[in-house]
Amino acid sequence: MDKIKITGGKCLEGKIYISGAKNAALPLICASLLTDETVTLTNMPMLSDIKAMNALLEQLGTQIDEFDDFVDNHPSKTYSYRTKEATSLTAPYDYVRKMRASYYVLGPLLARYGKCELSLPGGCAIGARPMDIHLSSLEQMGASIEIKNGYIHAKVDKRLKGAHIIFPMVSVGATCNVLMAATLAEGRTVLENAAKEPEIGDLANLLNAMGAKIEGIGTAVLTIDGVDKLHGAKHKVIADRIEAGSYAVAAAITRGKIELINALPSTLKRPMQVLRDMGVRVTENENSILVDAKGCTLVGKDIMTEPFPGFPTDLQAQFLALMLTAEGASMITETIFENRFMHVPELLRMGANINVHGHASAIVRGVKKLSGAPVMATDLRASFALILAGLVAEGETIVNRVYHLDRGYEKLEEKLRGVGAQIERIKDDSEG
Length: 432
Ligand code: UD1
What we know:
Blueprint: E1 3-7, E2 13-17, H1 22-31, E3 38-44, H2 48-60, E4 63-71, E5 74-82, E6 90-91, H3 93-96, H4 106-113, E7 115-119, H5 132-140, E8 144-148, E9 151-155, E10 164-166, H6 172-183, E11 188-192, H7 198-209, E12 213-215, E13 221-225, E14 233-236, H8 241-253, E15 257-261, H9 269-278, E16 281-284, E17 288-292, E18 303-304, H10 316-323, E19 329-333, H11 344-349, E20 353-357, E21 361-365, E22 374-376, H12 380-392, E23 396-400, H13 403-408, H14 412-418, E24 422-426
Parallel strand pairs: 2-15, 3-14, 6-7, 10-11, 18-19, 22-23
Antiparallel strand pairs: 1-23, 1-24, 3-5, 4-5, 7-9, 8-9, 11-13, 12-13, 15-17, 16-17, 19-21, 20-21
The structure holds uridine-diphosphate-N-acetylglucosamine.
The site of uridine-diphosphate-N-acetylglucosamine has 21 residues, from helix 1, helix 5 and helix 6.
């Protein structure tokens, strides 16, 4: 397994181009299963999760073509997806265990073919993450669901039926899955307490471009009038707000200055406000954000994760790392996942001062310095928090289990080196 070596202490300065959003791209890919025509997605990030989703769709019978492309003068990938006729309606265990988001094939396959078998995703490092809301919503639309031998067996006679669904809690995954299913259902579906994350708006925009009839995009109530058939479309994936927020913290933690090119300020209001409250200068332009912490003394700030537009759980670990370099104490409260402080013991090994209370909150006290150490994390965003700590730590930090980072950060070392970080990948040659 590769490692990343960072020598801390450099002040980062320059521009970083923000890639297309992983969490938008994954459901967008699955939306292509709703039609027999071609769906083309541009500004796709080059990430292992995208490759994993592509492999699953190929297994279902989708023809995928990949093109090198330029979006906003930056190299990116364009993929076209065509599922003329699915050759399998099963998402096997080996695919789902590698990537939970494989569950996004459920809504589209059930809506188009009336049947889908999906290996039930297990828990993951950050929590139990059940699928009960996805399944009960599809049942309300007429699906019968059985769980047998670790698989969800979902089927429906003829067609899903529109329903008035009130989600018991805000779920990004359930909103996307049921939204896709509802586009081909008979009649009107109303989704109340829907998630409002920008990635859902991106999905709804593609679905409408494919001929769906969705209203209420960006609000907690989505109204979908089912249609008989969807057609092909071309769509540009929105910028990755979590990647942008992560590099904003890289600027702040090194007291540097980074312009996040292609970042969408409207998707990052709360995290940028936290940076401002801490004492960082943040300037929002139409398609970029300038984060300037040069010469700044930062003060700690309390954070509580919440569904969008609240503070994103996917930036909690990175901001926790930042608070270590601020004056005073900060309280970090995690309300979305039950096990999302797994980065804390590793940060403690680097000299951090953090007290975790139960599973839900942590008090972070600023420290004079962090010191480099070999560390590893159990999930994607926690791994980036360790990179951030390594950027300011004295000496060398080795971050193990780099495959987590490859799931969600395109060209990580290249982007950080471009703004002056001393960072390199150490290839694992244990097999050679
Ligand atoms: C998505 C994101 C993930 C982000 C999360 C919250 C993708 C691929 N992943 O995950 O990066 O951290 O949103 O913003 O986009 N829940 C249930 N039952 C369900 C569904 C969810 O109890 O049927 C719970 C979950 O365990 C969790 C909470 O609801 O506690 C929110 O989860 P959800 O919004 O569904 O997260 P994901 O879609 O899995």
